[in-house]
Amino acid sequence: MSRAPEAIERHTMAVIVDNEPGVLARVIGLFSGRGYNIESLTVSSVTEDGSQSRINVVTSGTPMVIEQIKAQLQRLVPIHSVHDLTAEGAHIERELALVKVVGKGAKRVEALRIADIFGAKVSDTTVESFVFSLTGSPEKLDSFVELMRTLGQVELARSGVVAIARGAKAI
Amino acid sequence: MAAAKETAPRMTGADIVLRALVDQGVDVIFGYPGGAVLPIYDALFKQNSIRHILVRQEGGAVHAAEGYARSTGKVGVVLVTSGPGATNSVTGLADALMDSVPIVCLTGQVPTHLIGNDAFQECDTTGITRSCTKHNYLVKDVNKLARVLHEAFAVARSGRPGPVVVDIPKDLQFATGDYTLREDVTLKNYRPQLKGDPERIKAAVAMLAAAKRPLFYIGGGAVNSGVDACKLVTKLVRTTGYPATMTLMGLGAFPASDKQSLGMVGMHGTYESNLAMHGCDLMVAVGARFDDRVTGRLDAFSPGSKKIHIDIDPSSINKSVRVDLPIIGDVGSVIGDIRKEWARIKVKPDAKALAAWWQQIEGWRAVDCLRFKNTPDVIKPQFALQRLYEAIRGRDVYITTEVGQHQMWAAQFLRFEEPMRWLTSGGLGTMGYGLPAAVGVQIAHPKSLVIDVAGEASILMNIQEMGTAAQYRLPVKIFILNNEYMGMVRQWQELLHGSRYSESYSAALPDFVKLAEAFGAVGMRADKPSDLDGLIKDMIACPKAVIADIRVAKDENCYPMIPGGKAHNEILLGPPQKQEQKVSEEGMVLV
């Protein structure tokens, strides 16, 4: 009985960890050591006393690999819980991009106009440059960045994805 | 006296280490001193409750602790210095991680203010060992040292056991701090699930009851779950009347002499085990992890079976083989519950189907896959092990092995009736494991017979531990099947690389008899089959350590063999069976 090759899925996970030295290295080492993909990874302290951090990680793989990633993460001693937001229901993903665009004349005007359409803020400006800051879904950022590339984008910084489930239920 | 809670006593970091070990029930540790652990060695000098075994290289310390742990069920403890002490222990830690052996390894570290400074004998121990330990700690506050140590023991022994490193900077060993009592330490997050889900237990029993061609597939997890768990597994297998096969790590979990045992499964497992695995309609994996040496080609692995997987480690489930019913929990607990449910609903297995299944299995068994062609003048390695087995069966004996052909032959020809008697490096396949492991076993069981079945290449990888055996008067027996080749490498080169024996010949071997004598042990040699029985008798009777150099056939291959990347029904038989294979090929087509 042969199985059809399973499709690659993109999953966003929230991993709650003890805020201790080396925990991020453990998580990253797990992904690299076992050959899993990291599309995006963010980490920050999320509790009042600073004792816990939340790692948001976007990964991709077959359903079997995704299941493995969750089980392997769960096995690390400083990890409290692993939530597969993609599997658990509707969730919101947000990312911040800082986009530096250099140009003059029509291109500069067009960049500003498109930034306005996207709702990007101008965070810094000189006579020949803008730094736009834009928050949104990774897809929205992608399309903004693609447009800016033709309009003089010289530098890009993206925060990586943070994600949270919709609704009243908390993790 | 009022039962007032003991207030945390204050003591130096070195004393905290010793006190924590005593509170954890440790009576022996394996180690090697060095600059960064001198304060701990000083504290060790001043006490009498913990015995320190001085090994000859730190790698030996970890394997010895593994031998100690796996033959007792307790946590093995290692104490080594910073830098090279820590790096030398890495192989042992990786070995313990792969084979799920509970180890706590204490490493010295340069003083806190020098960390990151490329100080003398500094290395990033936690960085280096992160991926070869279950967990590791770098302690930076002496007041947290006791808590970390207690936690380390809890992590090492709970759930799927494994090695834990605690890296202790030298200044912490001198500093004075508060001791935390063992009972005041609990693991915050790490709580492995021990009890299986009752609904899944019911489902498992229903599947067991409906099976027509069932097979138990028992792994090292059953042994790790303990002697009592193995008894429950044995009872369940006997109650059902179903066949059982074991992995390399699971040998002894079910008695080899039982008619329901099909022997070992996998690359060099028995014909009957592998074909039963290929042809079964229900596989019950008990603490086994579908290792690639067991499954062979994945897309052809046991194609017609439903699979139940009992394992304490959720990450072992669906890792390589998708199973139909995972049950997460401790083998002992889950099998106990399955037995209760089996009795409660009064299962009557399908006797007719089972009889047909057994008939098929007996057909495979009749191939007698381990039979070899003996010769009157040259010792066949299999024959040497057969004679060894005849001499040790029924005795209080522990067997360790190195890695290679001799290991597989030992797994095939030495038969184990109970768990924790067989110690081998399964997952990592560490040559040089057997001698230090035997040292650890002999320390734990001074009166038992401890034999390291070795190859002449493997034994040289940790031969320095003969010094340890000599120092502590450990009568370990090293039974070298000496074919002057790295036999398994030679076998693969013969079968898969056109007999080009690239670098697999052991040139310039030492005289093992003289080598034994140099270490204050006894050397023996057998050149002909007729020498064997006398040598084995003398070896067992000898009160000292023995190196027995058994000169065996140089070109013998280990069969059966499932070549890498092949399916179970593509198993290769040895020359005697091959001639008769026409009959059995029908059986192979059937499954």
What can you see in these coordinates?
The complex is a heterodimer of chains A (171) and B (591). Chain A has 171 residues and is of the alpha+beta class. Chain A has 2 domains: 9-88, 2-Layer Sandwich (Alpha-Beta Plaits); 92-165, ACT-like. Chain A, domain 2 (Alpha-Beta Plaits, 2-Layer Sandwich). Chain A is built from 5 helices and 9 strands. Chain A has helices spanning 23-33, 63-75, 85-88, 106-118, 138-149, and strands at residues 9-18, 40-45, 52-61, 79-84, 91-102, 121-126, 129-136, 153-158, 162-165. In chain A, strands 5, 6, 7, 8 and 9 form a 5-stranded antiparallel β-sheet that branches. In chain A, a hairpin with a 2-residue loop joins β6 and β7. Chain A is elongated and about 55 Å long. The model of chain A has no long low-confidence stretch (mean pLDDT 94). The longest helix of chain B has 16 residues, at 142-157. In chain B, 56% of the residues are buried. Chain B is globular, with a radius of gyration of 25 Å. In chain B, β19, α23 and β20 (546-551) form a beta-alpha-beta unit. Chain B contains 25 helices and 20 strands. In chain B, α1 (13-23) packs across α2 (38-45), α1 packs parallel to α7 and α9 (198-210) crosses α14 (331-344). In chain B, the strands form 4 sheets. A 6-stranded parallel β-sheet of chain B has the order 3-2-4-5-7-6, with helices on both faces. Chain B has a 6-stranded parallel β-sheet with strand order 11-10-9-12-13-14, sandwiched between helices. In chain B, strands 16-15-17-18-20-19 form a 6-stranded parallel β-sheet, with helices on both faces. The chains are: A alpha+beta (171), B alpha/beta (591). At the A-B interface, α1 and α2 of A face loops of B.
